[in-house]
Amino acid sequence: xxxxxxxxxxxxxxxxxxxxxxxxxxxxxxxxxxxxxxxxxxxxxxxxxxxxxxxxxxxxxxxxxx
Length: 66
Ligand SMILES: [Zn+2]
Known about the structure:
Mean pLDDT: 80
Bound molecules: zinc ion
Distance between the termini: 24 Å
Strand content: 5-15%
Strand order of the largest sheet: 1-2
Radius of gyration: 14 Å
Helix content: 25-40%
């Protein structure tokens, strides 16, 4: 299936039977991030974690569900 990255609007094709595809099918509101954006955000999160100023909150996914 084709999915659009919420950050850069890049269209990616993911396998129909992948866990991500299943998640998106069950919950169309679920946001998709392409690998490069995901990597970028992960990097940034790690940076913040390293500075010690960022308190890691677990329900990170919940915030994206609007
Ligand atoms: Zn992207």
